[in-house]
Design goal:
single chain, mainly alpha, disordered C terminus, binds nicotinamide-adenine-dinucleotide, three-stranded parallel sheet
């Protein structure tokens, strides 16, 4: 057994080498198996190590966070941060099997549980209006109960999120196609938000802020009704997620679009909500300074009031210094 103490700030190549070093000491053979027991940071680190050891050693995942159970562990990507860039070094290395047990989430700190709901909302807004309604109705109770009650909602949410993630991945598992992936919703601005905050803003929080910003862009383009924007922000807030961050400005937006294009083979494919349960991809000249300025004004206006009204469960909001004022 190897216990490693990793968080987003120490999710780097050194930790991958710690796993490789243990594999060498334990004399792990080509057909032996690594088992990653932990959250998304851990599974990303172990998966990258497994892909390197003897050019690819099998691994199993037992995810112990909601992000792990509905996203990180069930996909095929592993990776670590490098020189301030999120997930710059990584691999595609599918696990042999993933074991999901929702009772493991009972001990998860509530902010980490809220983080998982950001990925669940990404799926709901991208694919499934009914799932959105379930999160809007029961998300808060699920977070407060450590994801234990109401049990029928928990089981439906878990099963549906896993099915939607697998469906989304199947569209282009190895990312060699058009790279127009609904699963990238919430993941265009979030890498830079995480990195520029020095990883003070967690992955789930950054996804939530990205969803809010993308929804504001959609509103500017009349793709989303303002009432739907309000519902999205209300739901994020209810489940203890932030919707604003003071570091979001036009520079961050433009740099994110450039980075997304570089990551997605030349086209940013910015995913924005086109209603609830549907998305649109934005590319080209429409992504100009005027759009960003309008969206930013709206984003600052709608998120400022929420920072002040942050619920008692708002321990998950980034430190006040980081909030939109
Ligand atoms: N590879 C992918 O496709 C993919 C997809 C989504 C997210 N990710 C990555 O996942 C990471 C976020 O994952 P996360 O939200 O699981 O964070 P995490 O791994 O940092 O875990 C959150 C915290 O909860 C603790 N913890 C884990 N399980 C626990 C339990 N059962 N009880 C008590 N405490 C527990 C951890 O020690 C940690 O402090 C990010 O680095 C993100 O980039 C990867």
């Amino acid at each position: 057994l190897l216990v490693i103490d990793v968080d987003e700030t120490s999710k780097n190549l050194e930790q991958v080498l710690v796993v490789c070093d243990a594999a060498k000491r334990f004399d792990l053979g080509r057909r032996d198996v690594l088992i990653a027991l932990g959250g998304g940071v851990l599974s990303d680190t172990v998966r990258l190590a497994a892909s390197l050891i003897r050019r690819g050693t099998p691994h199993l995942c037992v995810p112990t966070t909601l992000i792990g159970q509905i996203d990180a562990a069930i996909g095929i990507k592993g990776g670590v941060n490098f020189q301030g860039s999120k997930s710059y070094l990584g691999c595609f290395h599918p696990p042999e099997a993933v074991f999901i047990d929702s009772s493991l989430l009972a001990s998860l700190p509530r902010p980490a549980l809220s983080d998982g709901f950001a990925e669940a909302l990404k799926l709901a807004l991208g694919y499934d209006r009914d799932l959105f309604e379930l999160i809007a109705d029961h998300g808060r109770d699920l977070v407060h109960s450590g994801f234990q009650t109401p049990a029928p909602s928990r089981d439906f949410l878990l099963g549906r999120c896993i099915a939607l993630t697998l469906q989304g991945l199947q569209e282009d598992l190895w990312e060699v196609g058009t790279l127009r992936r609904t699963l990238d919703f919430g993941h265009s601005f979030s890498p830079l938000i995480e990195a520029r905050s020095g990883f003070v803003v967690s992955h789930g929080q950054a996804v939530a802020i990205d969803i809010a910003l993308s929804a504001c862009i959609a509103c500017e383009l009349l793709l989303l009704y303002p009432e739907d924007l309000t519902r999205i922000l209300d739901t994020l807030t209810q489940i203890g997620l932030p919707v604003g961050w003071a570091g979001v400005d036009e520079d961050l937006m433009e740099a994110s679009i450039v980075a997304a294009a570089s990551h997605r083979a030349g086209s940013p494919n910015l995913v924005v909500p086109a209603g609830i349960g549907r998305t649109a991809f934005l590319n080209g000249a429409i992504l100009d300074r005027r759009l960003f300025a309008g969206a930013l004004t709206r984003f600052r206006a709608v998120t400022a009031s929420r920072a002040a009204l942050a619920s008692p469960h708002a321990t998950n909001w980034p430190s006040p210094l980081h909030l939109v004022r």
